[in-house]
From TrEMBL:
Residues 19-73 form the HTH cro/C1-type domain. SUPFAM superfamilies: lambda repressor-like DNA-binding domains. It comes from Noviherbaspirillum denitrificans. The keyword Membrane does not apply. InterPro entries: Cro/C1-type_HTH (IPR001387), Lambda_DNA-bd_dom_sf (IPR010982), TransReg_Diox_bact_type (IPR050807). It holds the Pfam family HTH_3. One of its GO terms (molecular function) is DNA-binding transcription factor activity. This is HTH cro/C1-type domain-containing protein. One of its GO terms (cellular component) is cytosol. Keywords: DNA-binding.
Amino acid sequence: MAKAKRASKSTAQRIGKRIRQFRAALGLTQAQLAEQLEMDDMTISRFETGLRAPSLDQLERLSAIFNVSISHFVDENDESSLVHGRELESMLKSLTKEQQGFVIDFVRAYVAVHGNNPGSGQRKLGKSK
């Protein structure tokens, strides 16, 4: 029977980076995440630093906590938009329905004016146009 292949160091580091980003986006400490997973917080630290890769079962449990698919841990595409999306979702959930509606209307208006042009509408802090 063939032995299971271990994740490469770069894969473990990429997965660890994603775990850290998702955990931070939810405002969880390593200890809080470890408690939800019923494991030691040092294990979470090892995951996040890439010293150890989580098992498939552990990835499934992490996926459920972070509400993402397993592919989000290993996909090499830019993860910043996903993390920003989760951060925005978290912020929206803290608002009233009326406030959420205002924010959504504002974003729609912003996109209608600026579209998807990179850098459009961005300003440097402390400087006016």
